[in-house]
Fold:
Amino acid sequence: MADTADPTTGRPAGGRESARPPAAGVPAPLRLELSHVSKSFGGVRVLRDVSFRLGRAEVVGLLGDNGAGKSTLIKIITGFHRPDEGEIRFNGKPAEGLTVPKARALGVETVYQERALAEQLPLWRNIFMGRALSGPFGFLRVNEMRRVTEELMGQSMGFTSAALTPNTSVTGLSGGERQGLAIVRALHFRADIIILDEPTMGLSLKETEKLIHFVEGIRAAGKSAIFIDHNIFHVYSVADRIVVLDRGRVAGEFPTSRYSLEELMNIMREVAAGGSYTEAERYRVTGTTGGIA
Amino acid sequence: MSAPPAAGTARRPFGVALGPWASQIGITVAFALLWGMFIVLAPATFLNLPIYQSFAQTTPFFAIVAMPLTMVIVAGDIDLSFGSIMSLGMVGFIAAWKLTGSVELGIAAALATGVGCGLFNGIFVTYVGIPSLVVTIGTQFLFRGLAVALVSGKQFPLVTTSSSPLYDVLVGKLFGVPMEFIWLITIAIATWLLLNRHRLGQNAYSIGDNAQASALMGIPIRRTRITLFVLTGAAAAFAGLLNSLQVVNYYPAVGDGYLLPTLAAVFVGGTSVFGGWGSVWGTFLGAFMIGGISAGLVAIGLSDYYPQVVYGAVILVSVSIHAVLRRRFEY
Structure:
């Protein structure tokens, strides 16, 4: 835990001095665009007419109560679920029949809430889960995978303990180490879009801080991220834009440069209570009041 | 940088490095102890070749199936129908052989039948979504019933097959070593490679350990599970073939009685009932432990009534060793 010195942050090329690039408003091809996506499970409409954009070098926070549809939205982007209606575009190109392997090939990597690790398996098998390096006839390049894992452990995960080798199983890792593993796995495959589903859950204060730095590093490297968290403080501190989901629809989008944390919290409260908010109008009258960011 | 000195070392003793090996060492020691006991108590039998000739011929009949079955169990499934596939595969053999007179085509038909049975199991498990335990209890009856019905319960002498050159390849001897044993070694090595050095095994481990995570990471779950059932089906048909050709006779009950010894071999070998962990080496030793008990006890001079007691004891002791080592070394 405490020995994770230089976390995942250092890895993306470029400094991590969180100079916010001009995220919104620049007309570059969007990394990801969902238009009018709907999804039902057994007659229950979990998502209705959701549109969602993610730009280059942009971090979008996704907020919403339990059951708002955050996880479903994520799993549509990762190819785990198919939308009933609507369209998904990556870099401007429509992606039809999206599956998890296809989405990963398109550069989507996810750090799941449940971390998606196989406990009994060695670290190297976890890093390469679903993406094993293999040669002719599907035989694994085990040594190469072990070597890469060892490098990642030293450089990115900050696993310095001598007792940890690529052959160690996940069972003995702490929560922070597991999160580090899941993040490094997402990063290793040069993802363009990194989705973090409740990444701070179960992390210590210090580990959370590192995680926030890490997300800033994603942006600094020109990649994009979707950051889902229950904790609005975490999301606000790092996101360029916050999308609020409520009962399966998008209740609103809020650039953090224009909304203060307090205002956003009020909006969230209102949305949770009634599904809509009134704040935006006040903005139209007063213009930019200048958020904290 | 700002980090204090590595604090993690203290909490992981050397055992973690030993981790996965602990169980392998455990089963090897258990095997050595059992065998040592046989040698000490019945040196005349266990220090001479004939008993090993006999083991090398009879143990493969179920050990060959135990190999792919280990992978099925690693992936979190189970197959209880292989004993019946041993018989139904031979019905395929007899049909093709009687029709064409070709032993080669008969062998191909037997293997194809095994593959078909495995596919049937796999599709029911993955597409219909019934747990494999339940599906293969059903197909165990179905396949056996089909075999019995198709041959009207009759036996078939296979004496004339022994003139085929393939007969010796399958159940002959090479430098005095029964071919059954050589096939077992070949299949064991192939299984080890598939499980530990191939995508199939990588996927099997992941699915058995955490099916949900595997789905999220895009592992082809259905394809992997079906493939494993197909391999087990093919191996079962092959074992049924060896068994029948060895005694140059097919009887519909062939394979009956192999179910529990085969499963015992896998679990004695340390493969986890819950999936996610398994050992081909363990299964190999487990098979010879199970296969050796009966003959060993007779040689020692214990009456024929005891094997069941010893089977039970060996299985419980081995599985306990694995459980204890597992807790101790966290693998």
